[in-house]
Amino acid sequence: MKKISALLLSLFLLTSAFSSAQAAEKPSSIRLNGEQIQSSKFEPVIEKGVTLVPMRHLMEKLGVQVKWNEATRTVSGSKEGLSFSLQIGSTKATVNGKAVTLLVAPKQTGNVTYVPLRFVAETVGYQVAWDASLRQVNLTTKQQSERGRGFLWKIENKGNTVYLLGTMHLADESMYPLRPEIENAFKAADYLGVEVDLMKDIPEETKKLIGDLSVYKDGTTLKDHISEETYQKVTAFLKAQGLPENSFDIFKTWFVEKQILAIKSSQGEQKPDMGIDRYLMEKAYKAKKPVISLENIDLQFKAMNNFSDSLNERLLLQTLEPGSPNPPTPDVSVDFLAKMWSEGDYNALAEASKFIGFDAEWVKAQMDDRNVPMVEKIKGYLNSDKKETYFIGVGSLHLLGDMGMVTLLEKEGFKLEKQ
């Protein structure tokens, strides 16, 4: 289990700001620009969180020209200058001539060829979004100019400049390239500020802290702190992953929830290693731009370790089974958040940041208690006499709402301009 913990730590850190990342569910319907295209002959299958659909019907609906090479068992498709190729049984594919790796290979069942829905649709120019409440996949026409808009503000004071970007910790290729305003602001900055710099090696004292906080030391185990029903769901999840059913027994509920969330996130279509934060950190290190951590990750671990048993179990249940009763946070899908970010929909972000229906204990620990110290650091940059430029990237949900970072900075008298 030490290996599991080490492997998933960076995923856990990147997903800690929003705990309701959802695993894929089998859709009840698939719609193209509002019109249902699913039929009895178009039943999808789900593998490792990826939706696969019958090839011919999908290509026909999307207006894709298809070629089939029987000798190599390769499917090629093209539409308006966009193209792809897939090989049955292989996770290697091409998009506009460039090699990519799929999470799940195309497959044949009987005489039907199944292909990854999101991969094909996004390659030929469609936005793909999952509506968790309706269990519905929505395909809509997507323009390249809509990609990577994000949420960006500019703040100036005493000759100092801070660019504040709301990021996504989980992302995919459809969210790139970022728009020029973001890239130019990053280039102009002397420093990059992030919640936590995950490019650095994890300090030994932090590893020791995690090891100390994450396990029970009073002779109890996980099953003593959650209901029997919840424990059975945990063991069923472990079994599905090919892990021993007692793998999590020594760990506390909050740590188990984060491990499961990390596993599910790594199997989803939006991934931590594609996150906007990660992208910015990699660019900063390549350009030798100093990276500043706004938060002390040790304090985050201590805060979660202090969650009540009730909140911990509800978070665990929500992560195991989206749509579980009495969830601590609304079941907002990662796809919804990705669409909101890609379109730069400030109104949708403002609504999401009201945290209606969220557990007050969770909001205080994950938002309020974290936003205030981060704002204090930004105030320090703006009030400095050094006349420097900072590019700050934090999870988008930290920005708006009553205790959002934008709101707190405005209350301090700073003028923030949307970019």
Features of this protein?
single chain; about 425 residues; alpha+beta; 6-stranded mixed beta sheet; 5-stranded antiparallel beta sheet; 14 helices; about 35% helix; globular; disordered N terminus
Number of E-state strands: 19
Q: What separation lies between the terminal Cα atoms?
A: 45 Å
Shape: globular
What Rg is obtained from the alpha carbons, in whole angstroms?
A: 22 Å
If strands are numbered along the chain, what order do they take across the biggest sheet? 17-16-18-15-14-19
Count, helices: 14
Indicate the proportion of strand residues. Answer: 15-25%
What does this protein structure show overall?
- The protein is of the alpha+beta class.
- Helix content is 37%, strand content 22%.
- The chain has 14 helices and 19 strands.
- The chain has a six-stranded mixed beta sheet with strand order 17-16-18-15-14-19, sandwiched between helices.
- Strand 1 (29-32) and strand 2 (35-36) form a beta hairpin.
- Mean pLDDT is 85; it is low at 1-24.
